[in-house]
Specification:
InterPro entries: AAA+_ATPase, AAA_lid_NorR, P-loop_NTPase, Sigma_54_int, Sigma_54_int_dom_ATP-bd_1, Sigma_54_int_dom_ATP-bd_2. With 465 residues, this protein is of the alpha/beta class. The protein is 47% helix and 12% strand. It is built from 20 helices and twelve strands. Bound molecules: adenosine-5'-triphosphate.
Length: 465
């Protein structure tokens, strides 16, 4: 292994030469090269059809400049950080690189090996971007928020490049069913998507639904019938609402997954089956394991890879694109149905307990009332929908909280500071502590939010908190 303690810039020519052999075009990312202890190159696979790029940052150190370089590049590119320091970076520094926006991190292992590793990653990212831009993904899954795009990217990667079972959790109406269909489309399996809604499995019929039965196996079994395990062979078995599966069936399902074979009800013959398992639930299965309602061994089988489509309230940026998508569905000839500002505001502030399904239903109800040319107006909102009208802000609870602070003798500066700190804390919680996304949502620069957080930490430390 070659260590480059003097700074990553020295590795650029070597890596560029080696990457050239791997069919990857490499350009200097001019501005970023001025960073003192790092060098960055932007690279694109020669087979790439996508416009967004890849960045490779060679880190000869990990200081604020390097982190800023990564943050800047990550705004428009997938970034691979390469640790070129003489001693491997400590793990908390590696996490800091990932937190700054690096998609992946490699130790420097000599130009040749490093180039192979970089080329493999760029090829994967390139294929991923092509899939993300494809009609298979864009045609049915609408959303442009960072949270939604990150979710879909994870799903696309696991669906297209692995055969891993997938567990989709999340609130009702968040798109779990659509995600299962996407996994099937991208899986490349020759077989069908076999859907079984576990809430419909009555104890009497469950065996037959899952295993199938022989003719005469029980009263009413007039003909032999295939069950879900046979139908899913070579394809995908989608168990919707898997959290509702009774314990006895959980044990049977586990056995079939482990052994890859089953017997029809009334038969002594083993029948092989191979399927990819995709499960969905809006239950908290880990809590169900704690209460004994769900088997831990089955959970770890079905949850090899987990994803959670976020509720709509966590991705406001998706509301209007979804509204446009639904309006196009309702009006395929596209007669140009614009929303006026008041309707847009109403749709953006309404509460959607049923998530995207609720939004679709709301748009449909408004659309049914609309007639004639011109934009959809607030008058098209059905009367019972008006109850959802968001009260003006600042609202009564906000005024109560401020009154409370004033009555306690808080100064204006302290109240303003507390309101801002609370907003920052809430958004950081929602954005998994990602500074960049939180800053974007709060309408401040990344740097301004960092400074504010640093100051808050110093105040906390000073007050012994
Ligand atoms: N990202 C999306 N883009 C377009 N349509 C969406 C999206 N997410 C959800 N929908 C639409 O919202 C509705 C509900 O979606 P879906 O059935 O996939 O949700 P779910 O999470 O499986 O719900 P449940 O838990 O109640 O079964 C469907 O009409 C679906 O087409």
């Amino acid at each position: 292994m070659q260590a480059l303690g003097q700074g990553g810039a020295k590795a650029v020519p070597a890596l560029r030469a080696a990457l050239g052999n791997a069919g990857v075009a490499v350009r200097d990312a001019g501005a970023a090269l001025s960073a003192s202890k790092s060098a960055s190159i932007s690279a694109s696979s020669s087979t790439s059809t996508c416009t967004s790029g890849f960045g490779v940052v060679l880190c000869g150190a990990c200081d604020g400049t390097v982190l800023q370089t990564i943050q800047d590049l990550a705004l428009h590119a997938a970034v691979l950080a390469i640790d070129c320091t003489a001693e491997p970076l400590p793990s908390d520094t590696m996490w800091a690189l990932l937190d700054a926006g690096a998609t992946d991190l490699l130790p420097w292992s000599g130009a040749e090996l490093c180039a192979q590793q970089v080329a493999a990653r760029l090829q994967r990212w390139d294929a991923l971007q092509t899939l993300m831009a494809s009609n298979a993904v864009q045609g049915c899954l609408v959303g442009c928020s960072a949270a939604w795009r990150a979710l879909v990217q994870g799903v696309v990667e696991v669906a297209a490049f692995t055969q891993s079972p997938v567990l989709i959790t999340g609130e009702t109406g968040t798109g779990k069913d659509l995600i299962a269909q996407l996994i099937h489309r991208l899986s490349g399996t020759p077989g069908e998507l076999t859907v079984l809604d576990c809430t419909t499995l009555s104890p009497e019929l469950a065996g037959s639904e899952l295993f199938g039965h022989e003719r005469g196996a029980f009263t009413g079994a007039v003909n032999a019938r295939d069950g879900a395990f046979a139908l899913a062979d070579g394809g995908i078995l989608f168990l919707d609402e898997v959290g509702e599966l009774p314990l006895s069936l959980q044990a049977q399902l586990l056995r079939v997954i482990q052994e890859g074979k089953f017997k029809r009800v009334g038969s002594n013959q083993w029948q092989p089956t191979r399927f990819r398992l995709v499960c969905a639930t809006n239950r908290d299965l880990e809590a169900d394991i704690a209460t004994g309602a769900f088997r831990a061994d089955l959970y770890y089988r079905i949850a090899a890879w987990r994803c959670r489509p976020p509720p709509l309230r966590e991705r406001q940026a998706d509301i209007l694109p979804l509204v446009d998508h639904f309006l196009r569905q309702f009006d395929p000839k596209g007669q140009g149905c614009r929303l006026d500002g008041a309707v847009r505001d109403y749709l953006l502030t309404r509460d959607y307990k049923g998530n995207v399904r609720d939004l679709r239903q709301t748009v449909a109800r408004i659309w049914y009332r609309h007639t004639g040319p011109g934009p959809i107006t607030i008058g098209d909102v059905p009367p019972d929908e008006r109850l959802h009208h968001a009260p003006a802000w600042p609202d009564a609870p906000f005024r109560d909280a401020i009154r409370h602070a004033v009555d306690r003798g808080m100064s204006l500066a302290r109240i303003g500071q507390a309101a801002a700190d609370t907003a920052i804390q809430l958004v950081l919680e929602q954005e998994d502590d990602n500074n960049q996304r939180a800053a974007q949502r709060l309408g401040v620069t990344d740097r301004a939010l960092q400074i504010r957080r640093k100051a808050a930490r110093e105040v906390d430390a000073g007050s012994g908190l």
